[in-house]
Amino acid sequence: MDTASLSGKELAAAINAETKARATALTEGAGAPRLALVVPNDDPASAWYVNSLRKAAERLGIACDTVDLGPDATVTGIRAELAARSADHATDAIMLQTPLPVGVSLDDVSSAIVATKDVDGVSPLSLGLLAAGLDGFVPATSEAVVELLEHHGIPLAGRHVAVVGRSNIVGKPLAQLLLAKDATVTVCHSRTADLAAVTATADVVVAAAGRIGLICGKHVRAGAVVIDVGTNEAPDGTITGDVDAASVRGKAAALSPVPGGVGPVTTALLMRHVVTAAETGRSN
User: Would you call 93 helix, strand, or coil by DSSP?
Assistant: First the structure.
């Protein structure tokens, strides 16, 4: 079986074209949309992603303030920065980059981001709005998975989707989005007994656990679709996913590449969220 590549580049380009036009209109009115990117770590994979976000913002006419708090940032320090940016009228959008420092959880700090500027949908209020089916910003990576599947014409209604990973930034919100598309969703995690037995029954497998090569051929039934959300640093310094692509190709009907799959769509959606936040905030 030939395994199709579910590239996200074409979709990202279309989203970016619309976002740039909207950002230009804002800039001509009251100035460029402004994103505050708060980074409390020195993680290499995170640094790679932050750099890609900054470049994307620059290309689209979005101002990006990178706030480097370092890996020793405390709960108090992170919350103070997020609260200050939330209250700053010059800041339209806020994103908190993970991983967080040792001893700091997302639950400790995310509530300091006001929901109207929470463009990655990580605060308890944003997640609650999503669970209730109400308007709010959705975690961009989760949204990117759904948009990528729909872009490539992969149906979700009535299909069984296995999501491997239960984080508040990917797994849990993705499950909510998939349920809203009428999929039947199984969320797997580190305590799932016999992971392969669960995922091998799914029509779509989404790998979002942050472990290199976690999903391989035995986890995927013939003809299934596999979405790789992982962005892990390999020993040679390259970025690799959660899927052992070599063992899945030829068995899966389609596989998203890393890089070039979910990643560019996630970045494009984040930038679109920034412009939306700016449009909404400036109209109030």
Answer: strand
User: For residue 237, what is the enclosing H or E element?
Assistant: none
d(CA 45, CA 71): 14
What one-letter code names the amino acid at 133?
A: G
Distance CA 284, CA 267 (A): 26
Condensed to tens digits (0 to 9), the pLDDT of residues 48-90 reads: 889 989 999 999 999 999 999 999 999 999 999 999 999 999 9
β-strands 239-240, 232-233 pairing: antiparallel
- The β-bridge relationship of strands 239-240 and 225-228 is unpaired
pLDDT for residue 239: 83
pLDDT at residue 46 in the model:
83
The CATH fold assigned to 30-115 is Rossmann fold (3.40.50)
Q: What angle separates helix 171-180 from helix 124-131, to the nearest 10 degrees?
A: 30
CATH 3.30.830.10 assigned to domain 140-262? The reply is no
Residue 231, judged by CB atoms within 10 A of its CB (0-12, 13-18, 19+), counts as buried
CA distance 167 to 182: 21
Cβ 106 vs Cβ 169: under 8 Å? yes
Residue range(s) in the chain whose domain bears CATH number 3.40.50.720: 140-262
